[in-house]
Amino acid sequence: MKTPVFSAGLLLAAFSAFTSHAQSVKKNEKIRLVTLDPGHFHAALVQKSMYPDIDSTVYVYAPKGQDVQLHIDKINAYNARKDNPTGWKEQVYTGGDYLEKMIADRKGNVVVMAGNNRRKTEYIKRSIVAGFNVLGDKPMAIDKKNFLLLKSAFAEAAKKKLVLYDIMTERYEITNALQREFAMIPGIFGQLKKGTPEHPGVEMESIHYFYKYVSGSVLTRPDWAFDITQQGQGLQDVGVHLVDLAQWECFPDRIIDYKKDIQFNSASRWTTAVTLSQFNTVTNSSAKDFPVFLKPYVSHDTVLKVYANGQVNYKLFGVNVKLTAKWAYKAVAGGDSQYSVLHGTKADLVILQGTDQHYIPTLYIKPLVKSSNAKTRIGALLKTVTDKFPGVELKAKGDRLEVIVPDKYKDGHEAHFARVTDKFLGYLKNGNIPKWEVPNMIAKYYTTTTALELAAKKK
Fold this sequence. Notes:
24% strand, alpha/beta, Rossmann fold
């Protein structure tokens, strides 16, 4: 099937009309969830909380196998927990025709997708064509072919007045939110530096680990999570969050036309080595060899080389941005972490998450000109932040100021799924998705998939 091609201008016009008039679900209509082919724990995290607007019965359509069973096990665990148990009722259909069955049954009005990424963009397009709203985990496209399909899905959603939205939890991590707020105060930050490819105005790096805990237990990953044709590569998977943060923090509410506003400097990728023993631990298996579909990536019969790492260096509205996504097997201490710097003409805004921060994300303001009264001067401009985040304070730490955040804002990554879902529900009920969201989602996946093309050309 040939993918329709749409000009950037026509797409922007369609999305502008869509954001002005769309109301995908009537105000008094109950949201009915459908979960399609869940294979990633993010699908379950959407249901870690209950929502007044969502019916407690959820319809699951998936092929038979471990993926769907692990998903149901997580939902059952949430239902059975002692503190604030959920009350979900899962109606599960498993069969080879699960996608066609979901479309024919039309049991719900919102499809949640988080799993194997090989067919995810196809799932999105088929669901939109069938009239479902979609809440999709990242990535919604892992290569250029699927980017074009995703773009056509957004155009179809605009025509049908449906909401297609991806789960960007990192916007709700408090240090990211505060970094954005401080960057909007000229008296503190100045203006964002354009920088150069060698010394970018924006630098972000995330490190993730295959071995990790989720909801108190060691996460079991499916074997396909190590296959780049099914999971995607590092920058095209978790790197989506970095691209989103660069757009969201540095250019708030600004519509990005990906054909005009993005220029690439360079991109690269490299592998992470995973031994058979490590693979078995993470997948909870006792295999004596790697699966056949992973054989092309196996070195010396015992070490799997996964293209889990990637970097892109590009310009967004003329600002040089460098983003790096990395994966390792297991953290020595702490867990997944992020490093982020926005370079301003008056100060740098730096997020660190290392030993000195006890592996907790911590935001610092580093004035470029040393001053004995920096805390007093910057503190006088703090009101615009404390109006939104009461209780935030500043503490002098050498040549920088640490942003002290009350514990009430440190709700953790898993809690952010409920906040994204609440935001999505508001868009469904009120038809008020911002005009920049859809074109910027398209720009985001254009960035990640074009970076892959550039990186893959390197020897």
